[in-house]
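Thread: Newbie trying to understand structure tokens

Hi all, I'm a second-year student working on a class project, and my supervisor (Dr. K.) asked me to get a predicted structure for one chain before our next meeting. I've only ever worked with sequences, so writing a 3D structure as a token string is new to me. If someone could post the tokens and maybe explain what I'm looking at, I'd be very grateful. Here's the chain:
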Amino acid sequence: MAKKEMTIGKLAKATDCKPETIRFYEKEGLLPKPKRSAAGYRLYDESHQRKLLFIRHGRELGFSLDDIGLMLGLAEDQQSSCREISRLSRKRLSSIRDKLSRLQALSAELTRLIDQCDDGRIAECRIIEALKDGIVSR
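---
Reply by user tm_fold:
Sure, no problem. This is what the structure looks like when written as tokens:
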């Protein structure tokens, strides 16, 4: 049974990914080099599509390309332990929670500044004053 082959344009459309990004992932070694047609066009198969979707989802979750590359490598051996995958995922979750905490603090600070604003003149604007003074929380 022959594998279904597709051009980079079809792969891009099937995965909602730009051709430049696909070529970048190839260059970085995350996607294996595809076969080439007699005319020199890249010919991808369903395994490329699955890996590209894996990479995209990993990026959406905020994993680094290095982490995704490691996970792709580990995923090749279905019998290996997923301890490293769990460690990377816990590390990523911790980073997300830290960012959420900082964003919540920024939201509270900006809300406080907005609440102090009476829509008067710039000379009396509490938001501008706070930005100039650098007193907005970081």
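A couple of things are worth pointing out once you decode it. The first helix runs from residue 8 to 15. Strands lie at 35-36, 42-43. Feel free to ask follow-ups in this thread.
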